[in-house]
Amino acid sequence: GIQVEQSPPDLILQEGANSTLRCNFSDSVNNLQWFHQNPWGQLINLFYIPSGTKQNGRLSATTVATERYSLLYISSSQTTDSGVYFCAVVIQGAQKLVFGQGTRLTINP
Amino acid sequence: GAGVSQSPSNKVTEKGKDVELRCDPISGHTALYWYRQSLGQGLEFLIYFQGNSAPDKSGLPSDRFSAERTGGSVSTLTIQRTQQEDSAVYLCASSYGLAGGGGTQYFGPGTRLTVL
I need a labelling partner for A10 at 20 to 30 A (CA). Which of A36, B17, B46, B79 fits? Predict the structure, then answer.
């Protein structure tokens, strides 16, 4: 099946720093979503981005479908950005999301 | 409703008992998905429903797991004869249209199941 790999697995930063999270996938996809799992376990939708670039405030994402990777950028990090960030994809012909193992981001004050 | 809701939020049960987990999708969403999140396996797909079509049960780990969706809305995930390895957070998601057709999946808060 499709492999979804996220890097780095852990990232510790000071408040105000910028970060880049990466998601590589091994097959063509119809759907790619980025989620933030907060400390209470809720998966929050960040982006639906099977291709192209999107921005939402301090967050932006870029997916290069032909090269099978996506990047999530967080600028001017805040402590509330802490949590686990997941990338999930749907391969062509399927409907289920396949998740990466996540990147655990810790923002220290 | 405003989002996907799930109940109960926490469930503690004894090994061998049956449990039912409930999901209320976002109103108007035609597709409903169940996933589970456990320490050893990460986030994994269990089953999805789309309209009146037969569900895709390909992710169910054993025949002790079953799910139904009544009236195209509420869904119940049932685990029979629970085992300790069933302990996990069970997450429900819904989308307007199928994920493969571009439907964004929105997740509920989950049910944390602990099997003693």
Answer: B46
